[in-house]
Amino acid sequence: xxxxxxxxxxxxxxxxxxxxxxxxxxxxxxxxxxxxxxxxxxxxxxxxxxxxxxxxxxxxxxxxxxxxxxxxxxxxxxxxxxxxxxxxxxxxxxxxxxxxxxxxxxxxxxxxxxxxxxxxxxxxxxxxxxxxxxxxxxxxxxxxxxxxxxxxxxxxxxxxxxxxxxxxxxxxxxxxxxxxxxxxxxxxxxxxxxxxxxxxxxxxxxxxxxxxxxxxxxxxxxxxxxxxxxxxxxxxxxxxxxxxxxxxxxxxxxxxxxxxxxxxxxxxxxxxxxxxxxxxxxxxxxxxxxxxxxxxxxxxxxxxxxxxxxxxxxxxxxxxxxxxxxxxxxxxxxxxxxxxxxxxxxxxxxxxxxxxxxxxxxxxxxxxxxxxxxxxxxxxxxxxxxxxxxxx
Length: 392
Prior knowledge:
The radius of gyration is 24 Å and the shape is globular. It is of the alpha+beta class. A hairpin with a 5-residue loop joins strand 1 (about 1-5) and strand 2 (about 10-15). It is about 25% helix and about 20% strand. The chain has helices at about 45-60, 80-95, 110-115, 120-130, 130-140, 150-155, 180-185, 190-195, 205-210, 220-225, 245-255, 315-320; strands spanning about 1-5, 10-15, 25, 65, 95-100, 160-165, 170-175, 290, 300, 305-310, 325-330, 330-335, 340-345, 355, 365, 385-390. The model is unreliable at about 370-380 (pLDDT under 50). It has two domains: about 1-200, no CATH class; about 245-390, no CATH class. The two termini are about 35 Å apart.
């Protein structure tokens, strides 16, 4: 791992078991970011100013080393870039603290602000009404572009501690202190903001909902920025476009039986596969989590599509007489276990493959505990495998 010494402003490299304590920077990239190659020759350049200011701030706060994504990675080395992006969640998690620099926020400190750290969301709102400076500061905070970027999602959730800084490198509050406000901005359950190690308990659909309204400069990064959040690894293939998000989902289903990955809604009116084409399809899926009403054999991606077991008779699958099938997912919405999301498939081009239809919105139907599908008793149906076509 390559770290930057805050006093000497030089890079030092460490093997994994030798890495010293370090602080880490989270920020929104702009057009004047300092690269690894430019570091030595650009000390008089405006590009150096952000790194220099961060090092000075970190040094004042007793950090000898920092990590900055713009200049601590040699992005001309594809091997180093791949290692860094697959390791980044871990690097943020192991940092002593993450400083989130909001370049578009000017934080005004008032007596109300100084005493606000223990307030819940309702009291924050009360203080806003009585303190115009706090109201202005929080308006800027809520509208910061930092909350719209894909990469900053893991930078918000991975570290043990996050301290927000305004454009002048002045402290705002920590993630824990602002958890209710940040939850309102991001849709993330306040529990995960207060206790980030519990993020592993969030469902696939819930995690996808957090990224659904965010953006990245490169299409592929919408998948790559989620590697750590889903604890998966995969090679980087810049140029593959939206296929990266499909690859990510295939990696997820290869090690998870969480069927909420199928609980999405797309705008397309035609047929689709079981996997979403883009994270925006999960924008309304935040409250969906897995439950285990019935056993479904493992599903896998094959060269014929996703092999999935659904309640049906073998002859209906094989002879072509069955043109469409509906089946329920092992999922619930909130604490409601009486309904389940239902997926509808139709036979694809008179073949042995199927495709998902009517996916503009997620359908919910009654699925009492102990049933397999829409009121059918387990004894009246058996699970048969079929292949769901997946566009690539």
